[in-house]
# Entry
Amino acid sequence: MTFEGLNVRDVMQIPSEELDAKLRQVAAAHRRSVTQETIHLLETAIIAEEKALLPAPSGPVVSKWANRKLLPEYEAMMKTGAFSGGTDSTIGLSEERDAR
# Structure
């Protein structure tokens, strides 16, 4: 008997002693306490249930950042190279730290 693929009705029909023994065996195999194993199993079941209830995405998910429009002023500055070159900020921070 395994816990994989069992639903709530299946678990409810297992005698509590047998279920307890199996839980202790699985917990020992995973090197967890019975409480930790119980929490892990509950979390796994809840996550699986939530995934099953989520609607399937209707189309491809596209990041809002992938399709953003640059402001015209910023785009013009980028084309002129306003943000390239110059001193790396980490160098300035290092120099400031060393000056202390």
In short: DSSP finds five helices and no strands in the chain. The chain has a mean pLDDT of 82.
